[in-house]
User: What shape does this take?
Amino acid sequence: MRPRVDYKIYSELFDRHDNNETPTVKGRVITRDSSLLLPEIRLTVPKEKTYMTTVSVAPDGTVRLSR
Assistant: This one.
């Protein structure tokens, strides 16, 4: 049996390009059985990676998100 696998998801505001608005990052994880919403995060500091969530895949293929 395979072990559980965890994937940490981060976002990064690379450059503002003279735009002063604070971007919000949204997303989804599409699985064979469902679709899971990633938590929305606001990126405020350029060039800083911001943690979003951890995607865990169980040996039986079950997928879950955790913070």
In short: The chain has one domain: 5-56. The chain is about 0% helix and 45% strand.
